[in-house]
Structures are given as C-alpha cells and as structure tokens.
Design a protein that fits this description.
Pfam families: PGM1_C_vert_fung, PGM_PMM_I, PGM_PMM_II, PGM_PMM_III. Its main location: plastid. Monomer. The structure is a single chain. The protein is an alpha/beta fold. The protein folds into three domains: about 180 residues, Alpha-D-Glucose-1,6-Bisphosphate, subunit A, domain 3 (Alpha-D-Glucose-1,6-Bisphosphate, Chain A, domain 3); about 230 residues, Alpha-D-Glucose-1,6-Bisphosphate, Chain A, domain 3 (3-Layer(aba) Sandwich), CATH 3.40.120; about 140 residues, Alpha-D-phosphohexomutase, C-terminal domain (TATA-Binding Protein). Helices cover about 35% and strands about 25% of the residues. It has 18 helices and 27 strands. The strands form six sheets. Strands 2-6-5-3-4-9-8 form a seven-stranded mixed sheet, with helices on both faces. A hairpin with a 4-residue loop joins strand 24 and strand 25. The protein is globular, with a radius of gyration of 23 Å. Bound molecules: alpha-D-glucose-1-phosphate-6-vanadate and cobalt (II) ion. Alpha-D-glucose-1-phosphate-6-vanadate binds next to loops.
Amino acid sequence: IKITSVPTKPIEGQKTGTSGLRKKVKVFMQDNYLANWIQALFNSLPPEDFKNGSLVLGGDGRYFNREAAQIIIKIAAGNGVGKILVGRDGILSTPAVSAVIRKRKANGGFIMSASHNPGGPEYDWGIKFNYNSGQPAPESITDKIYGNTLSIFEIKIANVPDVNLSKIGVTEYGSFTVEVIDPVSDYLELMKYVFDFELIKSLLSRSDFRFIFDAMHAVTGAYAKPIFVDSLGAEPDSIVNGVPLEDFGHGHPDPNLTYAKDLVDILYGENGPDFGAASDGDGDRNMILGSRFFVTPSDSVAIIAANAEAAIPYFKNGPKGLARSMPTSGALDRVAAKLKLPFFEVPTGWKFFGNLMDAGKLSICGEESFGTGSDHVREKDGIWAVLAWLSIIAYRNKDKKTGEKLVSVSDVVKEHWATYGRNFFSRYDYEECESEGANKMMSYLRDLISKSKGGEKYGSYALQFADDFTYTDPVDGSVASKQGVRFVFTDGSRIIFRLSGTGSAGATVRIYIEQFEPDVSKHDVDAQIALKPLIDLALSVSKLKEFTGREKPTVIT
Ligand code: VG1
Ligand code: CO
C-alpha cells in the first residue's frame, strides 16, 4: 500500500477528559482535527504496540461515526497497523470493544462515542482509545497524546479506498487487512460464559414477570434483541427505542431519572412492569428499576457483589475484590467488609479499575454515575448489569410457582438495607455553568480545606477531615491528584465536589451527598428528604449560588 505524508499543524485543546476526547461534532469536522489526534496517538505508542498488529474499531452509531471510521482506518494503515477489526456499520458498544480486544488478542481499539452526550450535527462526538487488555488508556498515554497534538506536523495516510462497513468479511489491501465483524457475537458468547442463561430464561418466560428494556435509540439497540429476545426469550415488545439512530431520536441517551423519564413513568405507572432497565449511548451505563422503585447505582453494585457468588456462575468461587469510585456511596464497602474481600477506592473514571483487575485483585466494581461492571471486560457494562440483576431476581424466584408472590427488585434492595444499613446518596449536577465561576468555586473550596481542622462544626456535623482526593495506584504506583474535594464527617456522612471531565461546553459542577442510616425504620424515607440537611450544608459551604449564579441543579440522581 502507498502511504502519503500529509502536512498538518498543531490544534489547541485536544486534551482528553475522564473518558476520551469529547467535542462538538463541528469541532471534530474541522480539517485534520480528528486526523491530528489519531496520528498523535500513534506517535505516542511504542511501535511494538501497533506495527503489524491488530486494532479494533467501533462506536455507538452516532452522527459522524461513518466518516470518522474511514479516517481512522486510513491513518492506522498509514502507520503500519496490520489489521483493523471493525464492527458492522461501525457499531460496537464500549464493553463489546473491550471484549473483542481481549478475545481476539488485539493490541487495542478505538471507540467512536461521546457516551451519554447527545449526538447529531449540533451535538457531540468523541473518541476513546483502549489498550491491549481492553482497558481505557491510562493517563500516562493520554498525557503523551496531548503533548504530541501540540507538536504534530504530518499525518501518515494510506491510499486505501473507503471500506464497505455494511458487509461482514475480510478485505486485504496488500499488507493491511480490514475485517468487518458482527458486533454482537463475541460479546454474546462472553455473556453466555458469565451468566446462567437458562436461569435467566426461566424468569423471563414467566407470565407473572414483566420486563422492559429501553435502548434509548443508542448502541444497545443492536444488542437487546439478539440477547434479551432471541437468546433469553423476552417478549419482542419488551425492547423499546431499540433501533440505534445517529441522533438517538433527538434524545439524551443517559439512563437516569431525568433523561430516561419515559421509562421511569412506565415503571411508576398503573400496572407497570416488574423490571425495567436502560443503557446509554455507548452501552456502558445502566439504570435498574423495579415496579415503582429506583435502584441507585451505588446500591446496585453493592447488591450485585453481595449476591454474585450465588447467582452468577462466573463468580462461583466468590469475587476476588471489590472497588468503587471515590464519590460512589459506601454501600459496597460494607459488603466487602462482611465478605472479607479486598476493597479499593479509586478516582472517578473506569480507567482506574483496569490495573487492579489485571493484577487479579478486583472482580466487581462500580460508579455512582450508573456504571457497573466486572473483570469479564475492562469497561463498565450496561447489559452485563441488567443480566446480573435478572440473575439475582431469577435465583431468588427459581422455586416459586405461578401465583406465588415473586421476590421483587424492591424486596431485594430493602432486604439488603436491613442487613447492611442504607447509604442514602444523591448527586446534584449543574451543567454547563460558566467555567470561570465554577473554577473559582473549586479554588475557594481547595482553600477552605487547606485551612480546615478535624472536629470543626459544620451545622450539626463534626468534620473528620477534608481533602482533595489523591490516589496512588497500588499496582504501578502512579499518582492521580486533585480528584475531588471531600468533606467527611465523624458520622461517615460526606459531601464531595468535582468538575466533570466529560462535557463539551462550559463546566459542569457535581455535588455528591451521602449519609449512612443503620436504623431500618428510617430506610423508607425519600433520599431527598433524608439528605436535605447535608444538601443545604453543601450549598452553603461551597457558596455555589454565589459562584455559579445557579438556583437549581439541572439533573438530580
Ligand atoms: C462521568 C462520570 C464518571 C464516568 C464518566 C464516563 O465523568 O462521573 O463516573 O466514568 O462520566 O462515563 P465526569 O468527569 O463527567 O464526572 V461514560 O458512560 O461517558 O463513558
Ligand atoms: Co457511556
């Protein structure tokens, strides 16, 4: 194949955030914007990580993915990659990319997605790079890529024709090969290995159990029918918004109480189903609902961990260890303590779990941001979480006869609270604030914690400590600092402040609030009511209104 060197110039601002590089589509469509970043990536990797090697390419089907795929393929070939495995029509969910990298022993892979951010010509696009065990590239690599975007001068492009992405099969261009693969089969095979499909089938085929899955017109639309309907016997009409669309049907493909409101209304409506779930743009997030019941992601990971050994064959010898991101509630900590498992608290972002998994220290982990997963891949996994919950419910009901009352999602959660206590949790998001005000607020808070002392009174709470979270990776010793300002009180309550690293405009402030309640008689209180004093405290301590001008959060989860 012939390779052309195309001259280019550095472009400012190509720094990756919590999960890849995310910008408005229009920004990515500027000349060489994407090409520069892809070339900078190859300039950052040691040649043995890609020369004559294979890379996986897929995405969530959003607007601009088709053009982007052709650009990425040509630059990969231009840099000496031997083979690209690409999902049909450019489709692969984030966890599926991770699964394919692992199964096919690829050197890494690209995910074309801005995850839960809206798509379409006016909205967002994004790109993530994952490494050879399927994990998001560590900061050591993403920092290098950023450095190289600032000194780039040429792009190496192979003169290969546009690849027909809609046809499964292998095409060779001299020393370079493209294989278009089925987006579902490797992933489905892995799910069949992890879960007891017969057990789940026994639940989904019951006439007294009704299931609904909302793919939000995003990537899990491609997975839902083959997995839930064809392999597990769910009713075809149990899948809603099941066709991936370039603009997600004008939706915001984020499975939470605000953006998946249609699904929430169905579950909270008259005679609603028994189980509801949704996933995000790229299929790594999940929301789990029961009849008139919402499972917080922080509780969800704790409950999956507590029940995994019994209900999920992959964990039949018990999980190796558990982990959560720092702002995620301490519900999981209690499970780890009871099961006597190693436990880790990492910064926000899935990339911090990978090393622990590779080192055999971690099996099940989660984030409060609707991310749950395990070491079956190196990404959070929406469909995995739904199958984990279905397994738990199926296991609890396997001996129930038709007509007997089934153990419901809310029964499982309430029993869990009764055993472990309830960690009330809520997150307030203030999206797209002016960056200046948001940054000033964070500096103000950092200044405040530097002067704070244990024992200080904050309303009725006494401070245990306040800091800006720093994490030292126990496997490779790398340090991540400034990962969130936290105030931890003597009763275990916490308020935490962070700025989002996934937005494409302005600054999004996130406030996380948590309080532990051991008393069962208080477990049924609404979280917003239980947490009101702490929420008020968080707002006054941070002077959020003053700094951002915001009266109300845009999203509450
Ligand atoms: C958010 C979440 C974080 C998650 C990240 C990527 O990051 O808080 O927990 O890992 O999104 O998720 P931030 O920096 O905006 O808070 V996804 O589904 O966008 O890949
Ligand atoms: Co996502």
